[in-house]
Specification:
The protein has 3 helices and 8 strands. With 132 residues, it is α/β, with parallel strands linked by helices. The chain has 2 domains: 57 residues, Signal recognition particle alu RNA binding heterodimer, srp9/1 (2-Layer Sandwich); 48 residues, no CATH class. Strands 1-4-3-2 form a 4-stranded mixed sheet, with helices on one face. The protein has a 4-stranded mixed sheet with strand order 5-8-7-6, covered by helices on one side.
Length: 132
């Protein structure tokens, strides 16, 4: 027996705002809006495709009444694919992200940031092709 990682759910106050932010970050699209939930992804999941192989998970944003109160126990890492890490950090700041200090200290090869609701995520090394 096997399970598949199909979605990651984020509790939040404003699902529409966070979904819009993460769609811009990841080049995802809204694939479902139901009640207090917005789901985004790079594809529209089907049972057949998920059963056949592990597919990229979607992100779900679900409205909850309480705000975030402590450091995340789990977070997303993103890697720029067509520019430098510094360029991506600048782009994300313009989208509404902020820099975050979770005690990571100096001299790290990643940048800790927070989305508009304060959920931490990291920008890792760039995967952009290097000039020869």
């Amino acid at each position: 027996m096997t399970s598949r990682f199909t979605e990651l759910t984020v509790d939040c106050r404003d699902p529409e705002e966070l979904a819009a932010f993460w769609c811009e970050v990841l080049d995802f699209k809204v694939i479902d809006r139901t009640g207090n939930k917005v789901e985004i992804g790079s594809w529209v999941p089907t049972v057949e495709e998920v059963r056949a192989r592990q597919m990229p998970p979607t992100l779900q944003f679900i409205r909850v009444p309480e705000g975030r109160s402590v450091k995340n126990r789990m977070h997303l890492d993103v890697s720029p694919i067509d520019g430098s890490t510094d360029d991506e950090v600048t782009r994300l700041l313009a989208l509404g992200a902020t820099r975050a200090d979770v005690g990571q200290g100096p001299d790290r090869n990643w940048v800790v940031m927070a989305d508009p609701e304060g959920n931490e995520f990291c920008v890792l090394r760039s995967l952009a092709p290097q000039a020869s």
